[in-house]
Design goal:
The protein is of the alpha/beta class. Helix content is 55%, strand content 10%. It has three domains: 148 residues, 3-Layer(aba) Sandwich (Rossmann fold); 54 residues; 72 residues, Orthogonal Bundle (Helicase, Ruva Protein, domain 3), CATH 1.10.8. The protein contains eleven helices and seven strands. Helix 5 links the parallel strand 5 and strand 6. Helix 1 crosses helix 2, helix 3 packs antiparallel against helix 4 and helix 9 runs parallel beside helix 11. The chain is flat.
């Protein structure tokens, strides 16, 4: 389910991509910044089937790199990791053509083998010229696809760096160098105050085109989520709708923090299973709340 904050974030990302700007996104922990960024980029669809093959679960082609730098990072690590992520997207973009190439070459190979088999059966051995002709046809098809593959360019048009607070000045300069080297957008996601920190780096700050504050969910949105019986992945609550008092308790306890909402609903499932209950009540919410650390972290 896409919330209003996610839609606002998506519009912000689209603007950075369209105009080729650096954007800053900041918000309190747990409001859903990382979740929205992963969903927008489609990074959760991305998987490596083996050492040499990449794919997305729905067959889509991605154009956004989602990257979380390690706690201990250097400009070399940042550059290498992002370069590899872009190479993966390029490989992913080539997959439809590579599948077509494999099918076409397999067809040509089977056809040529059949020609040779029939010639042997008829005691009409293939001469050197005929073999060369078959090989030339196979090579021509391979060269055709190689030329088409070279025409596929890097599909990356936006790079999203999560946990950007981890980046020191040298690593930020590496990110800026990547941004300057191509016509792409760049988004840094961090905690409140990152925009003030960036203001100290004139060369970097001058390239920032948009700043976006990722806000907590509003009471109306949380109520809509609960009315539509949204739950975190793997969490199942009773089908019976919650009453207004129960919803109000959840809204009050979570304060619009998406992470706390997910944790509270998960804990509520455990309380319901342990007590063999058939509905979610205010008492269940309060019992679940006692088992959680309710705060900003």
């Amino acid at each position: 389910m896409e919330t209003l904050e996610h839609r606002r974030f998506a519009e912000f990302c689209n603007a950075c991509r369209r105009y080729g700007y650096i954007g800053l996104c900041y918000g309190s922990p747990g409001v859903g910044k990382t979740l929205s960024a992963r969903h927008y980029s489609g990074w959760d669809k991305f998987r490596r089937t083996d050492r040499f093959h990449l794919e997305t679960c729905d067959g889509s082609i991605l154009n956004t790199v989602f990257y979380t730098p390690p706690v201990l990072n250097t400009p070399g690590i940042i550059g290498s990791d992002i370069c590899q992520a872009r190479a993966d997207l390029l490989e992913l973009a080539k997959q439809p053509l590579l599948r077509e190439k494999t099918e076409r070459l397999d067809f040509v190979r089977r056809r040529d083998e059949e020609h040779q088999r029939r010639a042997i059966i008829a005691s009409d051995w293939l001469g050197g010229e005929k073999v060369a002709e078959l090989q030339r046809t196979f090579r021509q098809v391979a060269d055709e696809f190689a030329a088409r593959e070279r025409q596929i360019k890097d599909p990356t048009t936006l790079i999203v760096i999560d946990e950007a607070d981890r980046l020191r000045m040298a690593s930020l300069e590496q990110a800026r160098a990547i941004f300057d080297s191509g016509q792409i957008g760049l988004i840094l996601i961090g905690m409140p105050g990152i925009e003030k920190r960036m203001a100290r780096y004139a060369q970097f700050y001058s390239r920032i085109g948009f700043v976006h504050e990722f806000r907590p969910l509003g009471a109306v949105e949380i109520r809509q989520l609960l009315e539509q019986r949204w739950t975190p992945p793997g969490v199942h609550l009773p089908e019976r709708p919650m009453d207004q008092e129960t919803m109000a308790a959840i809204i009050r306890m979570t304060g619009g923090n998406f992470r706390l909402l997910s944790r509270l609903l998960t804990q509520m499932e455990r309380i319901i299973e342990v007590n063999a209950l058939q509905e979610v009540t205010k008492a269940v919410v309060e019992a679940a709340r006692e088992s959680l650390v309710i705060g900003e972290a």
